[in-house]
Amino acid sequence: MDFSYPAEAKQFRAELSEWLSANLTDELVAARRTSGRDDATFEMLRAWSRTMSDAGWAAVSWPREYGGRGATVLEQLVYTEETTRARAPVPLNVIGMNNIAPAIMQYGTEDQKKTLLPRMMRADDIWCQGMSEPEAGSDLAALRTRAVRDADGFVVNGQKIWTSLGHRAHWCQLYVRTDPDAPKHKGISCLIVDMASPGIEVRPLVTLNGDTDFAEVFFHDVRVPADALLGPYNGGWQVATTTLGHERAGAARLYAEMQVRLDELVDDLATHTDALADPVTLRRLGEIALRIKYLEVLCQRSISATLHGGSQSAAFASASLAKTVWGEIGQDLAALAFDVLGTRGGNGAWANYRLTSRSLTIAGGTTQINKNITAQRVLGLPRG
């Protein structure tokens, strides 16, 4: 690995750190640890997105012509480290900005770019992503939601599930099957769908901890105009691949986030218990700290490969492995916190995290799917 920060990246870090110190409030930091997003918290986070956007810090990796800073890979790394360590809330539209916006930049019309991207950055419009289905979670190619083409556009029928912010979203990047007879990776198209369209039914999902950040979305003869197609017809797999490969230094958030959680846990253990004198607890904390350091090295190897001309496929495979390790660390950290603190500490945040941590090995790609990617793309093993 080679991480020698040039003067520009150091200046970038100094400017960002100074801005965060002046603008990030204790109320916003506390919002990171609240259970769910009630209306008041949601609007506070929306206002934060606007504050960041107006200051030019909302989407540093975006090209300048779309409101970003055209940040280099190292500047993206600096941004992720600084915002995570400062405990800044992630943007409400984090999925949209990291995953959906790059596809709009590459495949969208000029009108779509000028209309949709600024409003996404400021969280004026909330976005969701229609990928997962009841029988097609991490396996996008198994989706069944259909879009039938006619003279006026498309007619969509089907169901999506575990749609983040689906019940609050104004727009959806929707993946649909448009050719049922084609090989499953080649018969998919991507549509930009107005969530106010007639025939869309959204039902919030209540998770273990009582949150409603997810929803299931039903499409009943929903008419979508022809110009809502994003990317090539039957080329949705290509759009999804572009989407998921955009954030080149995003893996840094994995280790930075876990280090912040570990630091917070140690602080709460010291405040509420005498557990730091217990050798068993100390051993478990040490093991997690070591695994976070391993995760940091793993993520930085992936970023270093990007810096030095490594293939996008190899970087994606390394990121999949890092995501697997991140999920397992998060679950073990949550278990330790709850074993020792129970509902004490962090205003009940650890009890909440114990419940939500069960999703870490599912959301964003299940551990089983990621291990298959690692086996095939990293180790070169044949398919089973």
From TrEMBL:
Work out whether the entry's keyword set contains Transmembrane: no
Which cofactors, by name?
FAD
Keywords attached to this Swiss-Prot or TrEMBL record, sorted alphabetically, are: FAD, Flavoprotein, Oxidoreductase
Q: By its UniProt entry, which PROSITE patterns does this protein fall under?
A: ACYL_COA_DH_1
Q: Where is the Acyl-CoA dehydrogenase/oxidase N-terminal domain?
A: 7-122
SUPFAM superfamilies, A to Z? Acyl-CoA dehydrogenase C-terminal domain-like (SSF47203), Acyl-CoA dehydrogenase NM domain-like (SSF56645)
Give every Acyl-CoA oxidase/dehydrogenase middle domain span.
Answer: 128-222
Q: Which Gene3D superfamilies match?
A: Acyl-CoA dehydrogenase/oxidase, N-terminal domain, Butyryl-CoA Dehydrogenase, subunit A, domain 2, Butyryl-CoA Dehydrogenase, subunit A, domain 3
A cellular-component GO term for this protein: plasma membrane
Pfam families xrefs: Acyl-CoA_dh_1 (PF00441), Acyl-CoA_dh_M (PF02770), Acyl-CoA_dh_N (PF02771)
Domain named Acyl-CoA dehydrogenase/oxidase C-terminal: which ranges?
234-379
Q: What molecular function terms (GO) are annotated for this protein?
A: acyl-CoA dehydrogenase activity; flavin adenine dinucleotide binding
Family the entry assigns: Belongs to the acyl-CoA dehydrogenase family.
Q: What name appears for this protein in its UniProt entry?
A: Acyl-CoA dehydrogenase
